[in-house]
Amino acid sequence: MLNLFKKKEKVGTQVFFKIEGMHCASCSMNIDGELEDTTGVLSAHTSYAKAETAVTYDPQLVSIEKLKETIESLDYRVTLLKK
After folding, report:
1. Residues ≥6 apart with Cβ < 8 Å to 61
2. pLDDT tens, position by position, for the chain (83 residues)?
3. Beta carbons of 66 and 38 less than 8 angstroms apart
4. Nearest partner of 44 among 18, 16, 8, 78, judged by Cα
5. What CATH number is given to the structural domain containing 64?
6. What does the pLDDT read at residue 52?
7. I need a labelling partner for 64 at 20 to 30 A (CA). Which of 8, 40, 54, 79 fits?
């Protein structure tokens, strides 16, 4: 019998950044969109309220430095929180 409630295995590596300079929820959507358009990024979830973003990515396709540069290109200040 097929188990419909089986959890998906985590794919990719996750990294967290502190983001400074967001002014509204639209800012977080812009960050997510730009990151998700980056080759190697599987998902991005930015919280305006927490001023943080979580990025799941393939480290063979994109580096943490490239992720940081992508966010900084939108004129936000970025600090690596944890890998």
Report:
1. 39, 40
2. 455 555 555 579 999 999 999 999 999 999 999 999 999 999 999 999 999 999 999 999 999 999 999 999 999 999 999 76
3. yes
4. 16
5. 3.30.70.100
6. 96
7. 8
User: Domain tally for the chain?
Assistant: 1
Residue 23 within a domain: yes
Containing structural domain, residue 42: 13-82
Q: Do the domain assignments include residue 2?
A: no
Q: Is residue 52 part of a domain?
A: yes
The pLDDT value given to residue 2:
53
> Sheet harboring 13-20: ordered strands across?
41-47, 52-57, 13-20, 77-82
Please, are residues 56 and 43 in contact by the beta-carbon 8 Å criterion? yes
Check: pTM over 0.85? Answer yes or no.
Answer: no
Which residues are registered as beta bridge partners of 53? 17, 46
Q: Is 1 helix (H, G, I), strand (E, B) or coil?
A: coil
